Amino acid sequence: MPNARRPANPLAAKKRFGQNFLVDRNVLERIVAAAQLTPGDRVIEIGPGRGALTRELLAAGSEVWAVEIDRDLQRFLENEFSGEHNFHLVPRDILQTSLSNLLDPPFKVVGNLPYNISTAILERLAAERSLFTDAVLMFQREVAMRLLAGPDDPDRGYLSIIAQASFEIEKCFDIGPGAFRPSPKVWSTVLRFIPRPDNVFDRAEARSLVSKGFSQRRKMLRNTLKGVAGAEDVLDLSRRAESLTLEEWEMLAKSLV
Ligand code: SAM
Ligand 1: which residue has its CA nearest to atom 18? Predict the structure, then answer.
């Protein structure tokens, strides 16, 4: 008996790679506008997928290095952009890729990120931020709110402090689920990151201090930073971690680590 089942479509969205493809032209144009490209700019695109954003980046005159993990999409992209001399496929896992090995600085970074690993990607980008001028990236809206949260915002946490220490972060715009296929259950937000100079939070000890401070959100710093010698000389420890400004965290970290 011949097998009546149709072969699986290799380009169908794969959940494990966080694939939700952008299909709204207006949104694609707004992302490219947020990236403030000038012809000849060199861009690393994280997760090109079926190339919707890639096409717009190339049309804006950029030279694109597109980092894609999915073998089926790698084949598709090679084929789709075979005549395009400004397109370079990087068939790799972005979490295993050092940007400095891809091209010489400076460059830009753009990506509609796979949501399951978006903060891990941002952490890697923070470590290599001296290489690029800016990054325009899409996150799940809840994550974007944590990245943007200022003092006393209930969304403020470890991620807010570490991201804001590494980048000036601008909110560009929100996107509803209807702009993607398949449609995610959540809204998305596009953010622009401008690298900040090296600072104390590039040190693991400073990051671990922040992590300690936020380990029990409802507690005062007096409890969470118990055992951190000298903390009381720098700050009023009856405060909670989320109330501190970035400058106060910086002051604390500089005097303690
Ligand atoms: N840019 C496309 C778009 O907007 O339609 C696709 C965006 S989709 C949300 C995320 C893309 O990242 C997918 O193409 C997925 O295969 C790719 N991806 C997932 N994990 C990756 C990884 N570790 N390294 C590189 N690409 C990855």
Answer: 47
